[in-house]
């Protein structure tokens, strides 16, 4: 049977990965201008699996308020169009052959509030991911303590370190969310 070990560095690395994923999701939320990474979170039902849009098409920004999506496989144009329409981004692509043109509408007050709600959803998903990593770490500590491989004092100390790491990463998520919310609501 494999020996269970406690690795705080691995726990912190996994938490940092959740935070980094959240920050890239935030970057995809627009604050008024078109950006090629706006479409990064979109996955398309292609070839029998969920595939990131970036693996099916090239996204470019020919104008500040326009995105151009060049789909490589003609048979995937409708699937890409559908995925973009069904995303939480509120975009409406126009199809021209294998190219989808997406006008970025001006952000009104209602749309800004919707974008903030999406940002909060991304934040909550990331916090849940960080808490799952915390749970995994605490489970390892409890198992080691139960098996007699770690003293009660060491287990308490390690549990405190895991909680401190969790608090630190959740604070980082909250800080990034507050900055993005301010950016979105800024007129």
Describe this structure in words.
The protein is α+β, with helices and mostly antiparallel strands and 187 residues long. It has two domains: 96 residues, Ribosome-recycling factor (Topoisomerase I, Chain A, domain 4, Orthogonal Bundle); 70 residues, Gyrase A, domain 2 (2-Layer Sandwich). Helices cover 56% and strands 16% of the residues. The strands form two sheets. Strands 3-4-6-5 form a four-stranded antiparallel β-sheet. Strands 1-2 form a two-stranded antiparallel ribbon. α1 packs antiparallel against α3 and α3 runs antiparallel to α4. The protein starts with 7 loop residues before the first helix and ends with a helix. The mean pLDDT is 86. Keywords: Cytoplasm, Protein biosynthesis.
Structure characteristics:
187 residues; alpha+beta; Topoisomerase I, Chain A, domain 4; Gyrase A, domain 2; 4-stranded antiparallel sheet; two-stranded antiparallel sheet; protein biosynthesis
Summarize the structure.
The chain is of the alpha+beta class. Helix content is 56%, strand content 16%.
